[in-house]
């Protein structure tokens, strides 16, 4: 009952979900998708014209459309492990494939972890200039900039054989212009060499924002093997991917990633289609901290704790972090102490309701993770 109460007080309406529960039952073996995640599938914040993510998506589209790019922003986030990983040369033992990091519906179907998951099918279908935007899913830490669902935009351009010597320079020039389109002509930028399995060479673009270097996007020249797998091994091209929340938090000055999911009118009435405005926080409610300590018994991954806390407290959880990590000198057992910060974006919390939630979390970690509370 508590769960329902939190859910209702947190949202003014139930989310729309297009998750195919019949086809992918959440209780099937190998499925690690909790109901609160499945319920968000189909929300499509990036397609809401008045939502900061929708406004940002439009601005990016505005930049690319004159260059002949088509947008795919309604592709299903349910994808095969082949498209999400193998087609992109992500090694079979890569950590990102682990069920501690990725939501699996079954052994070979996942909630996409990035929009790059659509490169293969769209290239195979013969497209050569496209953008893909959508919700992506990762089991991750909990803090102001991490949320298990976020949004990305991907771009791909293939070149005709006679244009192929200019790929890297065109890629860099175009993305620098995109950064100026979003952040203004005076923004300071720099390129960092990096590694992605699906591009070679690979780069990240950073901009100097309020004294700090901020990663804006990843990109590179598409790896020949990625193109070969689509039957287009004789072509060449570039690809890039950017995180919409990360950019929107900076552009609109939105301090907490959970705000993108709020139904509070005080948030939504501040934004209008086509405009980037500074968000004015409507109020700041006090956090409530609770600690939980336990002895680890078997394999333990912090993302499993994070999942439970989210499942129980929804968007009332602001941050979860390790406070203490201790090995008993005699038994050799490891103990972890985590602090959970509860804070609502929209209202004051009562001590009793947080005590109730914390009690459920304590029971769930014992039942689901087999740890021993201290
Ligand atoms: N898929 C990458 C990620 O989620 C982002 C990315 C990097 C996409 C480089 C690309 C690319 O298309 O070329 O972190």
From TrEMBL:
Principal place of residence: mitochondrion
> What GO terms fall under cellular component here?
mitochondrial matrix
- Give all residue intervals belonging to the Aminoacyl-transfer RNA synthetases class-II family profile domain: 56-281
Q: A Gene Ontology MF term for this entry?
A: ATP binding
Highest taxon listed in the record's lineage: Eukaryota
**Stored SUPFAM superfamilies:** Anticodon-binding domain of PheRS, Class II aaRS and biotin synthetases
Q: What is its EC number?
A: 6.1.1.20
Please provide the Gene Ontology terms (biological process) for this protein: phenylalanyl-tRNA aminoacylation
* Subcellular location as annotated: Mitochondrion matrix
| Domain FDX-ACB, first and last residues per copy | 283-374
Going by the record, the broad EC class of this enzyme is ligase
The reaction(s) this protein catalyses: tRNA(Phe) + L-phenylalanine + ATP = L-phenylalanyl-tRNA(Phe) + AMP + diphosphate + H(+)
Report keywords, A-Z: Aminoacyl-tRNA synthetase, ATP-binding, Ligase, Mitochondrion, Nucleotide-binding, Protein biosynthesis, Transit peptide
Q: Where is the signal peptide?
A: none
The UniProt entry, under PANTHER family, shows: PHENYLALANINE--TRNA LIGASE, MITOCHONDRIAL, PHENYLALANYL-TRNA SYNTHETASE
Q: Which family does it belong to?
A: Belongs to the class-II aminoacyl-tRNA synthetase family.
User: What name has this protein been given in UniProt?
Assistant: phenylalanine--tRNA ligase
Q: Which organism is it from?
A: Fistulifera solaris (Oleaginous diatom)
């Amino acid at each position: 009952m508590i769960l329902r109460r939190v859910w209702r007080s947190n949202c003014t309406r139930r989310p729309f979900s297009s998750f195919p529960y019949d086809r992918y039952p959440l209780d099937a073996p190998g499925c690690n998708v909790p109901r609160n995640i499945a319920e968000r599938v189909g929300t499509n914040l990036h397609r809401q014209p008045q939502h900061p993510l929708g406004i940002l998506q439009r601005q990016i589209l505005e930049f690319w459309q004159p260059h002949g790019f088509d947008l795919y922003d309604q592709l299903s986030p349910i994808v095969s492990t082949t498209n999400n990983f193998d087609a992109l040369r992500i090694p079979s033992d890569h950590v990102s494939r682990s069920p501690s990091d990725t939501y699996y519906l079954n052994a070979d179907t996942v909630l996409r972890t990035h929009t790059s998951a659509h490169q293969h099918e769209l290239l195979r279908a013969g497209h050569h200039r496209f953008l893909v935007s959508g919700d992506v899913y990762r089991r991750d830490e909990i803090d102001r900039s991490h949320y298990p669902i976020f949004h990305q935009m991907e771009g791909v351009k293939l070149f005709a054989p006679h244009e192929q010597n200019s790929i890297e320079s065109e890629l860099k020039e175009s993305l620098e212009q995109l950064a100026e389109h979003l952040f203004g002509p005076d923004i300071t930028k720099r390129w960092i060499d990096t590694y992605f399995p699906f591009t070679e060479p690979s780069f990240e673009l950073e901009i100097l924002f309020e004294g700090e270097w901020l990663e804006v996007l990843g990109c590179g020249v598409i790896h020949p093997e990625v193109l070969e797998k689509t039957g287009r091994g004789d072509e060449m091209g570039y690809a890039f991917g950017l995180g919409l929340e990360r950019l929107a938090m900076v552009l609109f000055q939105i301090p907490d990633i959970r705000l993108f999911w709020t139904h509070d009118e005080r948030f939504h009435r501040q934004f209008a289609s086509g405009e980037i405005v500074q968000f004015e926080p409507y109020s700041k409610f006090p956090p409530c901290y609770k600690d939980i300590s336990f002895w680890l018994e078997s394999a333990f991954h912090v993302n499993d704790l994070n999942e439970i806390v989210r499942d129980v407290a929804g968007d009332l959880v602001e941050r979860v972090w390790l406070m203490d990590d201790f090995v008993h000198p005699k038994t050799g057992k490891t103990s972890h102490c985590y602090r959970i910060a509860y804070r609502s974006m929209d209202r004051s919390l009562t001590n009793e309701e947080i005590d109730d939630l914390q009690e459920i979390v304590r029971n769930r970690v014992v039942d689901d993770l087999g740890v021993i509370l201290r």
